[in-house]
């Protein structure tokens, strides 16, 4: 049990609140930290380019494989399922693997799976290839976040994690449009070839720049990683992301339909609105990293409060192209929630760092499936596409309740986990 909190105005962190890697964190960032984090962010760029552009390529590979678009959409679901399955499985099986070697292996698998996607002749093989491509997704981001955090002082680790995620957000600005242009101009297979090439470039960058012997801890083991699934604080943090982030994906999914049927913009304008999503995500991620390093709990609550206020205005701005452009940029900024949640998981996971970090991205893929599905129920019942905004409000409010329970449980147990910036 934790010792009672002293009466001093500033309470020291409980030993349970400090992740095992934190004790070894440097007091200042090593000279090579920047280039290593850049190499890791390249992996985020690769995954973001592939994940988001695959949705845009559905109409093209459906024709190429001789299937309907509805059937082709199952390929996207197969990828998401791979993320959910791969995150815990790899975390357990690779508990004792050196992080540098694990990242190289994960990104190599990602490249191979995308190459297979590019040459597959059948729908069935495409399903298998996309499932395989999803397997390393969560584990890569989790392990990369742990490596980045280990390279910088504790009070800058959320910013380091944010820089990994910046690779993903920049992908929505640069990588996705490029992949779509390739898919439209050369053929959908070219898009997956580009993703594979980026993956192998990432492999080379990590191999060259990431230092050898970067973990895991000598105490790491499959059983300790599995223990994360029994840690109430870990589960509440994961549930916060899985619920609260669903609204973001609900709106993201139905923005194109809103633009075409309510806002009535020209079809050629639609990609520019999605580019604004990416701009917002990039800005929001950097701001969230900076803020969470100073006050983690208020940052998480603040993002969800902002989402509640913002999402409810979807119907009010839908008829104005200019207001909707501002709206989607701000919605993109709420996509930064994963960054402080990732940092919190590092705090609460104890010895199960890899499992908790990897499961964060599995949780957000659950949100990716849940948000649009809930919105689709109301749309099928006759509500306009903008009902996705109210779905977002409800899910953000539910996320706030879950996180409030986590904070209350933290205080009741005397685990002063959050806001340990110094």
Automatic annotation (TrEMBL):
<feature type="transmembrane region" description="Helical">
    <location>
        <begin position="164"/>
        <end position="182"/>
    </location>
</feature>
<keyword id="KW-1003">Cell membrane</keyword>
<dbReference type="InterPro" id="IPR036259">
    <property type="entry name" value="MFS_trans_sf"/>
</dbReference>
<dbReference type="InterPro" id="IPR011701">
    <property type="entry name" value="MFS"/>
</dbReference>
<feature type="transmembrane region" description="Helical">
    <location>
        <begin position="234"/>
        <end position="252"/>
    </location>
</feature>
<keyword id="KW-1133">Transmembrane helix</keyword>
<keyword id="KW-0812">Transmembrane</keyword>
<feature type="transmembrane region" description="Helical">
    <location>
        <begin position="272"/>
        <end position="292"/>
    </location>
</feature>
<feature type="transmembrane region" description="Helical">
    <location>
        <begin position="323"/>
        <end position="341"/>
    </location>
</feature>
<feature type="transmembrane region" description="Helical">
    <location>
        <begin position="35"/>
        <end position="61"/>
    </location>
</feature>
<feature type="region of interest" description="Disordered">
    <location>
        <begin position="1"/>
        <end position="23"/>
    </location>
</feature>
<feature type="transmembrane region" description="Helical">
    <location>
        <begin position="299"/>
        <end position="317"/>
    </location>
</feature>
<dbReference type="GO" id="GO:0005886">
    <property type="term" value="C:plasma membrane"/>
</dbReference>
<dbReference type="InterPro" id="IPR020846">
    <property type="entry name" value="MFS_dom"/>
</dbReference>
<keyword id="KW-0472">Membrane</keyword>
<feature type="transmembrane region" description="Helical">
    <location>
        <begin position="387"/>
        <end position="408"/>
    </location>
</feature>
<protein>
    <submittedName>
        <fullName>MFS transporter</fullName>
    </submittedName>
</protein>
<dbReference type="InterPro" id="IPR050189">
    <property type="entry name" value="MFS_Efflux_Transporters"/>
</dbReference>
<feature type="transmembrane region" description="Helical">
    <location>
        <begin position="73"/>
        <end position="94"/>
    </location>
</feature>
<feature type="transmembrane region" description="Helical">
    <location>
        <begin position="188"/>
        <end position="210"/>
    </location>
</feature>
<feature type="transmembrane region" description="Helical">
    <location>
        <begin position="101"/>
        <end position="119"/>
    </location>
</feature>
<dbReference type="Pfam" id="PF07690">
    <property type="entry name" value="MFS_1"/>
</dbReference>
<dbReference type="GO" id="GO:0022857">
    <property type="term" value="F:transmembrane transporter activity"/>
</dbReference>
<feature type="transmembrane region" description="Helical">
    <location>
        <begin position="362"/>
        <end position="381"/>
    </location>
</feature>
<feature type="domain" description="Major facilitator superfamily (MFS) profile">
    <location>
        <begin position="36"/>
        <end position="411"/>
    </location>
</feature>
<feature type="transmembrane region" description="Helical">
    <location>
        <begin position="131"/>
        <end position="152"/>
    </location>
</feature>
């Amino acid at each position: 049990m934790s010792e009672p909190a002293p009466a001093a105005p500033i309470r020291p962190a409980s030993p349970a609140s400090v992740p095992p890697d934190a004790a070894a964190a440097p007091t200042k960032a090593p000279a090579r930290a920047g280039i290593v984090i850049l190499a890791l962010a390249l992996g985020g760029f690769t995954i973001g380019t592939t994940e988001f552009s695959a949705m845009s390529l559905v109409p093209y590979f459906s024709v190429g494989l001789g299937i309907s678009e509805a059937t082709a959409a199952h390929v996207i679901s197969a990828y998401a399922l791979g993320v959910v399955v791969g995150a815990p499985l790899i975390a357990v099986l690779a508990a004792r693997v050196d992080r540098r070697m694990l990242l190289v292996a994960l990104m190599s698998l990602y490249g191979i799976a995308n190459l297979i996607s590019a040459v597959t002749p059948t729908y069935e093989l495409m399903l298998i290839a996309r499932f395989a491509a999803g397997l390393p997704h969560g584990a890569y981001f989790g392990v990369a976040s742990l490596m980045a955090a280990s390279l910088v002082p504790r009070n800058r680790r959320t910013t380091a994690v944010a820089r990994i995620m910046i690779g993903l957000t920049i992908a929505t600005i640069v990588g996705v449009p490029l992949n779509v242009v390739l898919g439209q101009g050369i053929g959908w297979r070219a898009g997956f070839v580009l993703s594979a090439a980026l993956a192998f470039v990432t492999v080379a960058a990590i191999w060259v720049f990431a230092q050898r012997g970067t973990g895991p801890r000598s105490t790491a083991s499959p059983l300790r990683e599995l223990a994360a699934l029994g840690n109430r604080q870990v589960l509440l943090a994961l549930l916060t992301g899985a619920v609260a982030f669903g609204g973001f994906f609900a709106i993201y999914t139905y923005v194109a339909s809103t633009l075409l049927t309510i806002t009535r913009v020209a079809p050629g304008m639609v990609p520019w609105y999605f580019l604004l999503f990416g701009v917002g995500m990039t800005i929001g991620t950097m701001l969230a990293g900076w803020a969470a390093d100073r006050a983690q709990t208020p940052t998480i609550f603040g993002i969800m409060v902002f989402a509640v206020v913002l999402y409810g205005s979807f119907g009010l701005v839908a008829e104005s192209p200019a207001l909707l452009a501002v709206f989607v940029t701000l919605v993109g900024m709420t996509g930064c929630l994963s960054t402080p949640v990732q940092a919190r998981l590092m705090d609460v996971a104890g010895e199960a760092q890899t499992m908790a970090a990897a499961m964060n991205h599995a949780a957000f893929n659950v949100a990716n499936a849940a948000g649009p599905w809930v919105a689709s129920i109301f749309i099928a019942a006759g509500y306009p596409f903008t009902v996705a905004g109210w779905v977002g409000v409800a899910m953000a409010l539910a996320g706030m309740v879950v996180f409030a329970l986590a904070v209350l449980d933290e205080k009741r147990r005397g685990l002063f986990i959050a806001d340990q910036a110094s």
